[in-house]
From TrEMBL:
This is DMT family transporter. SUPFAM superfamilies: Multidrug resistance efflux transporter EmrE (SSF103481). The keyword Transmembrane helix applies. Keywords: Cell membrane, Membrane, Transmembrane, Transmembrane helix. Pfam families: EamA. Residues 5-137, 153-286 form the EamA domain. It is found in: Cell membrane. The keyword Acyltransferase does not apply. Its main location: membrane. The chain crosses the membrane at residues 32-50, 66-88, 94-114, 121-140, 146-168, 180-201, 213-234, 246-266. It comes from the Bacteria. The lineage of its organism: Bacteria, Pseudomonadati, Pseudomonadota, Alphaproteobacteria, Hyphomicrobiales. InterPro entries: AA-Vitamin_Transporters, EamA_dom, EmrE-like.
Amino acid sequence: MHLTAYGLLILTTLMWGGNSVAGKYAVGHVSPMLLTTLRWGLACAILYAVGHRQLRQDWVLVRAKLPILFLLGASGFALFNVALYAALNFTSAINVSIEQAGIPMVIFAANYLFFHQRVGLGQIVGFVAAVLGVALTAAHGEFARLWALDVNFGDALMIIAVLVYSAYTVLLRFRPAIHWLSLIIVLTGSAFLTSLPFMAAEWVLGHGQMPDATGWALVAYICVFPSIIAQLFYIRSVELIGPNRAGLFINLVPIFGTLLAIVLLGEAFYPYHAAALLLVLGGIAVAEWSERRLEA
């Protein structure tokens, strides 16, 4: 059982790490807002074809909580990926992968500020280390650039994406108790609707680009693997070993994203990337170790 969960989680994080690489590779093959719209529109259509009966069974609960469900889909699925794919037009997939690793620490801070979850010294140390790692990446190894506000536009967008996805994760506590398939159908549908104005603005401003053959292949990969299969694998893994142990594997996403960017995109790996990864992953490890001691 554990080996099955571990295998599924490794594949899940590999697919999620590949999302940043696919988004970077999509530059010049399909415009980012259209990519977001196609991703969630196709994913919703596939999931609805499979789970429409379950959605009908849950519809009373879904309708009662439709505003919060729409907010969850709009933030965690649509706005996060709008910012991520747009960021990849200006910065590297390695930077985006490392900056995503700051999400757990922002979630930790939000839970402390808004829900008064207790914290230990180790969690504070871990939070500071992870934030320093993200800042080092955004500043391309030169902290002085932060003071001068000389940060790459793509890295700034990615930091916004991190904040948006962290808010989505914190708000998940308010989701209704419905079947996971109904939940994903509604979230992907909400993401599709939210992405439409961004796609329209992209075309009005003259930045729209229909997918070429490579673009359609990337849309298919992003729709099927990170959006659907990875979600199913993650849900099954949580059922097998629980959310706390499964959540630890998310720390593999920046590692896989970085390795894939080097191998598939030929991106350069600088010493500050290594320092940032150590800070971020080390900070997360210290914070999680401290949290487990508090729970013991």
